[in-house]
């Protein structure tokens, strides 16, 4: 009888065990979605009330999402560079979604830097898109696409 190591996949030797996201990367990835969502909700509140402070809130929330999202993007770039060949495709998709989120967030920040009246409706549309991309990036980052992958 042959002893099977505890860390070896039981059913198929070509399957690799799930490698969870690094805890620091998980912390960085936790911030962009709620910050961009808060900016979207602030834009919706500004559209409903025309109180300038809502536009200011949105600007600060976008800036926070860009700051922490930039560090998550940097981590994803490093992970893409040092990741193995089998993980390159999923890391590339994750990196591209994060990069698109960051670029659209930057454009959104530039739109929100204008006068409050001038931010609508472009700022609202960009906030919706950036929020969706942040959600997709969080989903991809935390799920790592599937629990096991083929070499």
UniProtKB/TrEMBL annotation:
Pfam families: DUF2231. InterPro entries: DUF2231_TM, UCP029509. The chain crosses the membrane at residues 26-46, 58-80, 92-111, 123-142. Residues 22-142 form the DUF2231 domain. Keywords: Membrane, Transmembrane, Transmembrane helix. The keyword Transmembrane helix applies. This is DUF2231 domain-containing protein. The keyword Transmembrane helix applies.
